[in-house]
UniProtKB/TrEMBL annotation:
Hydrolase is among the record's keywords: yes
GO MF assignments: phosphoglycolate phosphatase activity
Keywords: Hydrolase
Taxonomic lineage: Bacteria, Bacillati, Chloroflexota, Chloroflexia, Chloroflexales
Pfam families xref list: HAD
Tagged with keyword Transcription regulation: no
Gene Ontology biological-process annotations: DNA repair
The name this protein goes by in its record: Haloacid dehalogenase domain protein hydrolase
Gene Ontology CC annotations of this record: cytosol
Length: 231
C-alpha cells in the first residue's frame, strides 16, 4: 500500500472537451452575468472558473460576481448536461490516461482532482467521459474552493488527511497538470510536480517552470508511472 495522494488536473491533462465545456461556460456567464464589456477573449487554461468569471467582468466588483456563484454553477451544469452528447462526441479522454489511472488504482494510491473546474462540473465532465470511477472526489480541491489555484493543493491535502485518517507528507503528494499554473500550485505546497504537454504548452515551455518531471503525454504507461511515483 503506497501512501501517496495523486492530484489530477482535468482539462488538457485527463481529457479534451473539444471546446464544448468552454462554450457552455461562456453561455452560462452570459445568462447569469450578461454580456462582458471586455471584448478580449481570454485563455482559460490553468485558471480557476472563479478567476475566469472575475477576468471576464473586470469592471464589476468581485464580491458582487461571486455572490452569484451558486446560480452560475447551477446554470453551467444545466447547459453542459443539455450538451452532453456534443461533449461526448467532440471531447475525448487523452491517450494513455485510462491505463495510467488503472495502474495507479492497482498501486493503492489515493487519486483525486486538483482543478480549476467548479466541483460539480468536474464530476460531470469525468462522468460524461466514463472515468469518474477512478477518483475519490472528496479528497480533491476545485475551482469552487478559491479563485486562486495556488490555494488548492493545501485544501486537497487537508481533505485527504481528514478522509483517510492520515497526513500525506509533502513529498507523497503529486500534482499532475498541463500548465505552468499547475506546476506553481505543486511548488507552493511542496508537492511533486508532473507536467504533461498535452495542453496549450510545449515540453520546452513547461520545462522552463522546472517541474520534477515533464512528459509529452501519458501514452507510455511505464514512463508515466515512473514519473508520477518518482521511481
Ligand atoms: Mg489543464
Amino acid at each position: 500500500m503506497r501512501h501517496k495522494l495523486i492530484l489530477w488536473d482535468i482539462d488538457g491533462t485527463l481529457l479534451y472537451s473539444g471546446g464544448v465545456a468552454g462554450e457552455a461556460m461562456r453561455a452560462a456567464m452570459t445568462r447569469v452575468y450578461g454580456r462582458s464589456s471586455d471584448n478580449e477573449r481570454r485563455a482559460y487554461a490553468g485558471k480557476t472558473d472563479q478567476q475566469i468569471i472575475l477576468e471576464t467582468f473586470p469592471d464589476r466588483p468581485a464580491a458582487e460576481l461571486l455572490s452569484q456563484l451558486d446560480v452560475f454553477t447551477a446554470t453551467y451544469l444545466d447547459i453542459l448536461s443539455e450538451w452532453a452528447e456534443a461533449f461526448r462526441t467532440r471531447g475525448r479522454v487523452l491517450e494513455g490516461v485510462v491505463d495510467v489511472l488503472r495502474r495507479l488504482r492497482a498501486e493503492g494510491v489515493v487519486q483525486s482532482l486538483l482543478t480549476g473546474n467548479l466541483a460539480p462540473v468536474a464530476r460531470l465532465k469525468l462522468d460524461l467521459m466514463g472515468i469518474a470511477e477512478f477518483f475519490d472526489f472528496d479528497s480533491g480541491a476545485y475551482g469552487s474552493d478559491s479563485p486562486r489555484r495556488i490555494d488548492l493543493a493545501p485544501i486537497a491535502a487537508a481533505r485527504a488527511a481528514q478522509r483517510h485518517g492520515r497526513v500525506f507528507a509533502h513529498a507523497d503528494i503529486v500534482v499532475i497538470g498541463d500548465t505552468p499554473n499547475d506546476i506553481a500550485c505543486a511548488r507552493a505546497a511542496g508537492a511533486r510536480a508532473v507536467a504533461v504537454a498535452t495542453g496549450p504548452f510545449s515540453i520546452e515551455e513547461l520545462r522552463t517552470h522546472a517541474p520534477d518531471a515533464v512528459l509529452p503525454s501519458l501514452a507510455d504507461t511505464g514512463t508515466a508511472l515512473a514519473a508520477i511515483l518518482a521511481e
